[in-house]
Design brief:
With about 575 residues, the protein is α+β, with helices and mostly antiparallel strands. It is elongated, with a radius of gyration of 37 Å.
Length: about 575
């Protein structure tokens, strides 16, 4: 009998069945390998992305703002790290949110209800508070609450408190600049944010050993100012002293270099502390009065009026008039401030006596076309172009305006019916001090990024407004005003000073002028031949005395004495004596 074929000596299975079983096994193996390949290789990126999305967060990295320094490198605005408190609401138990909010409210001094709303919201990240103090951060850590985290962030600091606050402005909690240099130059100071994409643990803490993708932030550029922090302190100190003595409502002091337009100091009060901007309830405190607050300059404007007359050649210092103490025009009567007549009065004496009638004589002698053209040349009615936010145009009603009338030509001559900012007036009168050039004022000297100067401001001549010889003549007249007139209170032995006081009325809300309110002011520069500084002092609504000669001129004198010493300005005049007229 024929025996059946047997493989491997006796399995008992027919060969074809064995081959079929082997084929199925091989096919199953191939299918399994294919599936493993698909899962491990083809779907690797997809599954990896899904896992990463579930365990990572992408966050913006706040860059440190650039520093702001004075002309000597003294830091006026810098940075320090302060913690931000954040939470992962998905890790906060529903029944614990209220209790946690109460605990945090006690530490942060924030409403518990607001914190609870944030803790209950959807998502994995929410900011609860920024700029925590060291004590607050330590108190939060001591709570050891699952789902809360602290993150250090650069925060703006102003090491000198309120010093130069109107110049600096401030940076808010979002690292954005507002007002002043912080606002004007924000694009340079703020830098560029970075980005971090990294894994976190269940408490929301970054895992150092996890995969991270970091694009580092770009720090902001540094800004150096023309401001001298010492002179700024002197100006603010004298302003505060004068306001306290006079029980005044406010005031401004500006110190300028006439030949360049550099602002050495710009102080206004009341001010604020930039670091505590969020505590300031009156937002008007942030506005810089030196460049935005219009006022009638009064007799300090007579310098400009005299400049127009000298430039047009219609007067000389010795031109004389019979000042009766008043003049009638267009149904109005213009009076001298004291009502007194000044027979046979020279133009220099018009300034010494601060005579309104004499100033009106000059403006009418010049004529409306030439007078207003000259005022426009001096920059009146236009912004100065200073590199700060919020500058006001000024107010100058021209003859082409339907509201203009002939009386304007008279009253504008002695600084009434015209609106200027302190910066506009000092810039115009600096053109007299420096020999006839209108300079554009500026507060930023240069901007530096990574050691490279990316922008630099240079002295800019807007236009020539006076011939040098005309400016020299007027400077001599102004020196006589200080040395021989009733304003000798501004005089300092050993130094030549040119200047002019002003006492201007304040418009009433009901029309006309308030008889009880004034603005006392003084503009002066020194030394006369080659001025190193020009100062404007403006005191709003002084109560002890209304007069510029008794309020603003002494403040100028006190400040000038400190400037001579600090700036090492040698005396240019032999000491002498003098008395002040009543």
């Amino acid at each position: 009998m024929q025996r059946a074929n047997v493989v491997n000596g006796g399995s008992g299975l027919p060969a074809w069945r064995l081959r079929l079983a082997l084929g199925v096994a091989v096919l199953a193996g191939l299918l399994l390998m294919s599936k493993l390949f698909y899962v491990q290789v083809m779907q690797n990126n997809f599954l990896g992305d899904k896992a990463e999305v579930a365990h990572t967060l992408e966050r913006s990295i706040t860059p440190p703002r650039g520093t702001i320094t004075d002309r000597h490198g003294v830091t006026l605005a810098g940075n320090r790290n302060l913690d931000r408190l954040y939470a992962d609401p998905s890790n906060i138990r529903e029944d614990e949110a209220g209790k946690i909010a109460e605990q945090l409210a006690h530490i942060l001094k924030l409403p518990a209800a607001e914190l609870e709303v944030k803790l209950r919201q959807d998502g994995q990240w929410v900011s609860l508070a920024t700029r925590l103090t060291l004590q607050q951060s330590e108190a939060v850590r001591a709570l050891d609450i699952y789902g809360l985290g602290l993150e250090p962030l650069p925060a703006r600091v102003y090491p000198n408190g309120s010093l130069a606050s109107h110049i600096l402005g401030f940076a808010n909690f979002e690292n954005q600049g507002s007002y002043g240099v912080e606002g004007k130059y924000n694009e340079f100071l703020q830098g560029a944010p970075g980005k971090m994409r990294a894994e976190q643990d269940k408490s929301g803490n970054w895992l150092a050993i996890a995969r991270q993708q970091i694009v580092p932030p770009e720090s902001g550029a540094d800004v150096q100012l023309t401001i001298d922090s010492t002179i700024q302190y002197y100006a603010e100190d004298e302003l505060a002293r004068t306001m306290k003595e006079q029980r005044a409502k406010g005031g401004t002091i500006i110190v300028l270099r006439p030949e360049t337009g550099e602002v050495l100091a710009m102080a206004s009060a009341p001010g604020y502390e930039p670091e505590k901007f969020n505590e300031q309830k009156d937002a008007s405190r942030f506005v810089n009065p030196a460049i935005s607050q219009l006022y009638e300059p009064g007799s300090t404007f007579k310098i400009i009026t005299m400049a127009t007359g000298l430039a047009e050649g219609v007067i000389t210092p010795d031109t004389r008039i019979n000042d009766r103490g008043y003049v009638n025009v267009d149904g109005y009567t213009v009076h001298n401030w004291d009502g007194r007549p000044h027979p046979n009065e020279s133009m220099t004496e018009v300034l010494m006596n601060s005579a309104n009638v004499g100033a009106a004589y000059v403006s009418t002698k010049v004529g409306k076309e030439a007078f207003y053209r000259r005022l426009r040349d001096f920059g009146l009615g236009s912004p100065t172009g200073i590199d700060l936010q919020g500058e006001t145009d000024g107010m100058l009603i021209l003859p082409t305006n339907p509201s203009w009338s002939p009386i304007n030509l008279y009253t504008n001559g002695y600084g009434q019916g015209i609106g200027v900012t302190p910066m506009q007036l000092i810039t115009a009168e600096a053109a007299v001090a420096n020999g006839g050039l209108l300079m554009r004022p500026y507060v930023v000297s240069k901007i530096v990024r990574d050691g490279q100067v990316v922008r630099e401001n240079k002295p800019t001549v807007v236009r020539r407004v006076l011939k040098p010889e005309v400016a020299t003549t007027l400077k001599g007249m102004m020196q006589t005003v200080v040395e021989e007139g009733e304003y000798q209170v501004a005089r300092l032995d050993g130094y030549t000073i040119g200047g002019k006081t002003g006492t201007s009325s304040i418009p009433s809300k009901t029309g006309g002028y308030d008889p009880k309110l004034t603005i006392a002011s003084f503009v002066g520069y020194s030394p006369v031949k080659n001025p190193k500084f020009i100062v404007l002092v403006k005191i709003d609504q002084p109560r002890k005395s209304p007069w510029g000669s008794e309020v603003a001129a002494p403040a100028f004198k006190n400040l000038a004495r400190r400037l001579y010493a600090y700036m090492n300005i040698p005396p240019d005049k032999r000491p002498n004596s003098g008395t002040r007229a009543p």
